[in-house]
């Protein structure tokens, strides 16, 4: 058995995703889709592992100049606009927004024009 290396980071990160997802109120199918995207994208997986360890983004994985922090802040702004309160209350689930930022980045990499338009021009009040 010499030469066999066992890297449990993916197993542990999957378990952590399930815990975060449950806390964030995400459905198992939604989490499975996010996990598939993490596995398919080395940059996303590195970001997720970093997030689990440091509870912040390293922002090395980018798409069209945007990182996960940008997408997280964008979602925070959308939450505040929808809630029409202008601040983040205790009902604002930060972990859900983190997971949403990862999924948004995955989708942005597939359809950058759609997300660049949303990020730069805003969706408008009638879209909420």
Q: What would you say this structure looks like, in words?
A:
With 128 residues, the chain is mainly alpha-helical. The protein is built from six helices and no strands. It has helices at 9-24, 28-40, 42-54, 68-83, 94-110, 112-121. Helix 1 (9-24) crosses helix 5 (94-110). The longest helix has 17 residues, at 94-110. The chain is globular.
Q: Main sheet?
A: none
What is the overall silhouette?
A: globular
Q: What would you call the quaternary organization?
A: single chain
What's the end-to-end separation, in Å? 57 Å
Helix residue percentage = 55-70%
Query: Low-confidence runs (pLDDT<50, min 5 residues)?
Result: 124-128
Strand content: under 5%
Number of strands: 0
In terms of structural class, how would the helical and strand content be classed? Answer: mainly alpha
Mean pLDDT: 85
Rg? 16 Å
Number of helices: 6
Order of helices and strands: HHHHHH
Keywords:
66% helix; mainly alpha; 128 residues; 6 helices; globular
